[in-house]
UniProtKB/TrEMBL annotation:
Protein name, entry field: W02B3.4-like N-terminal domain-containing protein
Entry superkingdom: Eukaryota
GO CC terms in record: membrane
Organism: Cylicocyclus nassatus (Nematode worm)
W02B3.4-like N-terminal domain segment(s): 33-137
Signal sequence segment: none
Keywords: Membrane, Transmembrane, Transmembrane helix
Cited PANTHER family: FUKUTIN-RELATED, RIBITOL-5-PHOSPHATE TRANSFERASE FKTN
Pfam families: W02B3_4_N
Subcellular location: Membrane
Length: 350
């Protein structure tokens, strides 16, 4: 039988005492003793959250990390400051995320919480942990790029909606995609979508892939899986479209890693030539604000973009002059498929 957490609120010496108890043994798991929670807090201490079903906690022994809304910062009693590690948070206006002022600035997607009086706990602790470990914020530099044609090829509003839809759907499958390729370049360099780009690029770690991901994408009713290239043991790429089959076309590259590098593959469909794109080993993922919404990005942005686009990555090259199998700085041929392999590893869906 699983352990359920319940909250008992009792009146004691004119103060409320919040106690979490193990519903089977009735033993306290968490007690705030005489500390009254006079305003909302979110418990964000991963070490403690992960131990909740198993272990009791004495608040006098542990320096638990809690998040307090920035509006309540000046109301904190001294005992809070002594007992807890305080992180201030807010929900920025018209944004789809929470912002935390930790030792670094962090942003995470809006999360579901279970509330016990003024104490809230992430409903899905492991998902919260995934969000938190990739929450350190990175900011775009916003260069002004002079172009003869500024009208975007991709419809920005629809493109953003479908990017959000794909990201949310992949998260539901325990896949955490991040901006990649020209989409990453456009966000970092000019804080948006490159006007002449013709598709959207995401990547995800191959370790997050399982067969159920492809099965779900094949039958989902939110996006259309148009193409699958390769296989999970080699290069692997999905291409998706909106249900109306229009723009934007979105590529999801599965990223492989060795000791010192990360890489993804490409396939020239007319002759079976395979390509390999090599990057610095991606060891950490960060978060960014992309047109008001949270997306993830590699943390070491300049090193990543320099390897792919060269030392002058900040200069603009028209998409019409950029050839995907020639123009990248980090590309090399990686073998060739025969006709049978090409048929098996290049699948289109209707």
């Amino acid at each position: 039988m699983g352990i359920l957490l319940t909250v008992h609120i009792s009146y004691h010496q004119k103060k409320f005492r919040d106690v979490f108890v193990d519903s089977v043994t009735k033993n306290p798991i968490l007690s705030y003793n005489e500390v009254k929670l006079e305003f909302p807090v979110i418990l964000i201490d991963l070490r403690f959250l992960r131990s909740l079903p198993k272990k009791r906690w004495d608040p006098n022994e542990d320096n638990i990390k809690i998040a307090v809304h920035i509006r309540d910062g000046d109301k904190l009693p001294q005992e809070y400051l002594q007992r807890y590690e305080i992180v201030y948070y807010e929900q920025p206006l018209n944004k789809s995320y929470l912002l935390f002022q930790d030792e670094v600035t962090r942003i995470i997607p809006n999360i579901s919480l279970e509330s016990y009086g003024n104490l809230s706990i992430p409903q899905d602790v492991e998902q919260f942990a995934k969000f938190w470990e990739r929450s350190e914020i990175r900011r775009c530099i916003g260069l002004e790029i002079e172009r003869s044609q500024m009208k975007p090829y991709l419809p920005v509003k629809k493109t953003l909606q479908n990017m959000i839809l794909l990201q949310e759907y992949l998260i539901s499958l325990n896949v955490y995609p991040f901006l990649f390729g020209g989409t990453l370049l456009g966000w970092f360099r000019e804080c948006g979508i490159i006007p002449h780009t013709k598709d959207i690029d995401f990547a995800a770690f191959i370790e997050e892939y399982k067969p159920e991901v492809l099965e779900e994408l094949q039958k989902n009713k939110k996006l259309f899986l148009w193409r699958v290239l390769g296989k999970p043991s080699d290069f692997f790429e999905f291409t998706l479209k909106p249900l109306d089959r229009g723009e934007p076309l979105m590529d999801l590259f599965w990223l492989f890693s060795s000791k010192n590098e990360s890489w993804t593959g490409g396939l020239k469909g007319d002759d079976g030539t395979k390509y390999k794109y090599t990057y610095p080993r991606i060891r950490k993922i960060c978060a960014c604000d992309f047109l008001g919404h949270l997306f993830w990005v590699p943390c070491d942005l300049v090193a990543f973009l320099s390897m792919e686009y060269g030392p002058k990555w900040y200069l603009d090259y028209p998409t019409s002059e950029f050839i995907w199998y020639k123009s990248h700085y980090n590309i090399k041929m990686n073998g060739k498929l025969n006709s049978k392999e090409l048929k098996e590893l290049q699948k289109y869906y209707k």
